[in-house]
Amino acid sequence: MKYLTIILTSMVCLNLLSCKSRNEIKKPNIILIYADDLGRGLLGTYGQKIIKTPNIDMLANEGVSFKNAYGCHFCAPARASLLTGMHDVRPNQWKITKGGIYQNLDNGMTFEEIKDSIHKMAMPAKPKEVFLGQVAQKAGYTTAEFGKLEWGFATTPERIERHGWDYHFGYYDHQRCHGFYPPFLFENGNKIDIPGNTHIDCAKTNNVESEEGYKDRWDMTGKSFYSEDIIMEKLLGYIDNYSDTKVEKPFFMFFPTQLPHGPIAIPEIHEDFKYDERLTEMEKEYASMVKMLDTDVGRIMERLDSLKLLENTIIVFASDNGHEVYAQQENRTNKEVDLTTGKKYDNIKTKFLSNLSNDVFDGNDGMSGLKRSNWEGGTRVPLIWYWKGKIKEGVVSEQRVANYDFLNTLAEIAGEEELKEKDGISYAKTLFGGKSEVHPYIVTNSKLGPALVTSDGWKLRYHLKKDVFQLYFLPEDYQEMKELSAKYPNKVQDLKEILLMESGGSWN
Predict the structure, then answer these.
(1) Could you say which of 404, 422, 440 is where a domain stops?
(2) pTM of the model
């Protein structure tokens, strides 16, 4: 780690104002920690039994956690929705670029050629379009982004700056995020080489356990520095630099970590799992990835506390989408097959449940479905807000909120007017014991088709390929086992019309 610190000492000089006392800052710092593929069932506060997550649990125990928070169905639309304040059901809302192009950097393509290719492929932002980072900037914040940058699957420094980030460090290509030993990352548009990491694909491994796969994961040739460690060094250094500068501006920090997205890779097994006979080697490694995320949340808290910044900092913990099963092994775990019958899930009459596919972690918290689906397990996510001494402790909210609400929630907290052109609405008052405006419904998209959930828990899901609508009442049917469309045809028709409207008039 000493050498890692040396190669990362090029911390950008921040254009921060100094002079005024820290006590004169009225607005709180805000840190959004955005986990990747973290099903809420992986956290102790949502019921996890094997993996202990004391730091994240503490945020929930001393803050507000949500039981009905919705992300998106996978990584790219989730980040686009978060940063724009718009839902992902409307067609042609964003252009999702193709990943992997940065593997050609200095290997057939220059940086300028790659950027030109991405800019031609993806629509530029409209002149009046406002993004999350810009909302914070307008409110007087300095902004920083670390980790899995922007939506994708590939981006450029020009696009990141347009979205309102004063400082950014991490990956520009989400496909490269499938490996954890990058030979280079980017800082404010500058390529930062990581000596000792030699794999062009960042040392991506296999998703299914085998003897060959185990050897590949633990062959550390060309794997000197783990990406989460590199990014955390930068993130904590940013906080240190902010404190040293005694700036009068508050900061808004966005930390979209890779963890615990697979394929599974970790520098070492955590002590909690080394001798846990309930787990395979792959499951021990995956549990260690979740544990590292929790440890890093604790490191951020400790750094803020040591610098006397904690009491004036809001910490938000969320995830982009529902659970995914990465620790698969023949005759033990298969996310696509009901192991009790040997039949593949059809996602109409049968669907993934932890007990049927032997997910020992029950990462989707007992719900149906996984990432990319429009079952609740695919889109319902953890959401926790913490502000020491300001947000009431131990509140569990039943309010249905969406990923696309964060932009306007931040706007209200920062003292800005809500942006009425956005799909999201603020739930800030809920955080402080008041009553916020409530969505009449929330919409989400998926590989299967769109879905809608009303504020009182009626859910309509659509299976596009088979042209099937299904109706559920979630308050009485947590696992979506009782299909009610035949019993309530009028309800189906009413919700179908709303979903069609939100889908731009077409299911395609």
Answers:
(1) 440
(2) 0.94
